[in-house]
UniProtKB/TrEMBL annotation:
Binding positions for Mg(2+) per the UniProt entry: D30, E135
Species of provenance: candidate division WOR-1 bacterium RIFCSPLOWO2_02_FULL_46_20
Designated name of the protein: NH(3)-dependent NAD(+) synthetase
Residue positions binding ATP: G24, L25, S26, G27, G28, V29, D30, S31, T130, K159, S181
One family name in Pfam for this protein: NAD_synthase
Residues bound to deamido-NAD(+): R110, K143, D150, H233, K234
Gene Ontology process terms (BP): NAD+ biosynthetic process
Domain NAD/GMP synthase: 2-238
This protein's UniProt keywords: ATP-binding, Ligase, Magnesium, Metal-binding, NAD, Nucleotide-binding
Nucleotide-binding among keywords: yes
Family listed: Belongs to the NAD synthetase family.
GO CC terms of this entry: cytoplasm
GO MF term set: ATP binding; glutaminase activity; metal ion binding; NAD+ synthase (glutamine-hydrolyzing) activity; NAD+ synthase activity
EC number: 6.3.1.5
């Protein structure tokens, strides 16, 4: 799997006549795996961006551990003052750092996308996303934020498969074990937002693939089905009127 993913990334970059890859290093397992794969694919042409935006200090520490482990060149772009200023222009008041509104929280991944594409355009690199299938199925990503990328090497892999890849690649154990978080606000975790653990979610996705959900929690299966239906628009191009 690692060899196939590395070859695929390299081929995608070559087909686009690009020179390399840029990606965000968040301190999470998905971005760690993407960083390691890109480094294997294009050893001399990768860039990892640290993009803190009212983030936890530990996230930056973990992101730096990944960069050190895989010798990934990095750049720090502090998005906190930008986010503050943008919010003040939009709302006419100071940014509410602890506000759990998705309207506010989604500013962060969209600012990160802008930063990634700035570097991509400057270097003729492709933006490599870190999303996985478990998140995509649930629509757990920000449209034109972390969903605004050029390629998704983990897009067909469940969270459990990403963790296994992380172990094989040698990602530091503390990153594999830490609770996944999009960093939308202090203390936020993916599983709390999703209303289901990744272990349960992956089992249900596999069961839906095989059309055999017997023995699974009925309410959790219904939750996943609702999320799939509600977020379908996020996985499709914008509808275009055809006269």
């Amino acid at each position: 799997m690692i060899d196939r993913l590395v070859a695929w990334i390299k081929n995608q970059v070559n087909e686009a006549a690009a020179l390399g890859c840029v990606f965000g290093l968040s301190g999470g397992v998905d971005s760690a795996v993407v960083g390691a794969l890109c480094k294997k694919a294009l050893p001399d042409n990768v860039l990892g961006l640290y993009l803190p935006c009212f983030s936890q200090d530990q996230d930056l520490t973990d992101a730096k551990a990944v960069a050190d482990k895989f010798s990934i060149p990095t750049k720090l772009v502090d998005l906190q003052p930008v986010c503050d200023q943008l919010y003040q222009q939009l709302e006419g008041k100071a940014f509410l750092h602890k506000d759990k509104s998705l309207t506010i929280a989604n500013l962060k991944p969209r600012l990160r996308m802008v930063s990634l594409y700035y570097q991509a355009n400057k270097l003729n690199y492709l933006v490599v996303g870190t999303g996985n299938r478990s998140e995509a199925v649930m629509g757990y990503f920000t449209k034109y934020g972390d969903g605004g990328v050029d390629l998704l090497p983990l897009g067909e892999l469940l969270k459990s498969q990403v963790r296994e890849l992380a172990r094989k690649l040698g990602v530091p154990q503390q990153i594999i074990d830490k609770p996944p978080s999009a960093g939308l606000w202090s203390g936020q975790t993916d599983e709390e937002e999703l209303g289901i653990t990744y272990e349960e979610l992956d089992k249900i996705i596999r069961a839906l693939d095989s059309k055999e959900t017997k023995g699974l929690n009925i309410e959790k299966v219904a939750l996943v089905k609702r999320r799939i239906q509600a977020s379908a628009h996020k996985l499709c191009p914008p509808p275009v009127y055809k006269p």
